[in-house]
Design brief:
Length: 423
Amino acid sequence: MRAPAALLQLYRLGILLAVAWLIRTHHARLRVEGDRPVRVEEVASWFTNAAGLRLDLTARGGFHVLDKAGGELGYVVRTLPHANRIIGYCGITDTLVALDSNGQVLGFKIRHSEDTRTHVGDVLAERHFRKTWNQMNWDQVAGMDLKQAGVEGVSGATMTSLAVAEGIVHRFRVAQGELRPQPVRWGTRDIGLAAVLALALWLSLANAEGRERWRRWFQWLVIGYVGFLNGDLLAQSLFTGWAKSGIAWRMAPGLVLFAAAAVLVPWASRRPLYCQQLCPHGALQEVVARHAPQHWRWSVPAALDRGLRWVPAALLAFVLIVVMLPLDFDLASLEPFDAYVIRSAGVATISVAVVGLVAALFVPKAYCKYGCPTGALLEFVRARGVNDKFGRRDWVAGLLLLAGWAMHWQHAALCQLTLGPAV
Ligand code: SF4
């Protein structure tokens, strides 16, 4: 690669890293400045007579729950900020645990989570998981080995529920001074993803004979295993969650490897590894297009094509605004990828998935070309060879970084402007 093209690639990777760093810094600041204090209404479901909370200044660092006369009803403890390094699928979770006046756990509730909303909903809906620690005392929770205790996580929200479980045990251990370094969990799912990745690399980089035939079989593996079975699709909700809270390399090392390869292979080799081989929604669109009658094909007029190709970049700008400002919008509903986790998929994500697949009947991979912000992000970092030049997308990326920095810098003023002075 000639020096200018190499510099351009460094610029693109630098923009990506700078945006991720900006989001991380921004949310770290928001956590410290705007941390959510525990309110007495939050404990009312456990302690109906609760009238006040008194901070416990011992190593446990929770709150005594008091009635009107100052009598002690019980105790509550929140997992953040102590568990702020325990990341589920794409973010940290603040959990509140209640203990009765005898020191036995009554239950827990999730106060706030940066994880995918539908996954959090699944965790709360699973009664058996919700009762995991009930009747245990402080020492029993702190000494718990989740694996030995058979805590497997909630189906469809495994990483989120395991992060909640680890957060609770970790929080109780903090007070015991018994913190142990958390191991990296290499489960069957991670090994499976690593194997799929190895096959994709072979298909993408080797010049094997009959590669296209193998690729068609491989697409079914990607759709079935990566998509419907695991739901391990790269998405804006995942990337922004990692940028906010940190990368889930301990809880989901296979997915982290997947994401790293999706960014770094095209960056270094020009091959769009993820979009060409590994994305279940891309593969499903190809399958749909292959089975559509030829006479259904529609050629998009050039002017419309030019206009629609800006949509993914506009969606990336929208994602940045949602992440930097306190807007209540679930990023999972912007893309079709959560639809593969059928059990917990929301209506919006299913609608985007279905519309994209119907569009593929008429325009092959229409969603990839005209709708996918994650594809646009991966395409932005992809190398284009020695004749590569600084183009429009590089200008736009630089401007987005500046816009992100402005939102960070003027955050308070922008909150007032968008949400009013009460925020
Ligand atoms: S453009 Fe989006 S939907 Fe298409 S293959 Fe890439 S990530 Fe998947």
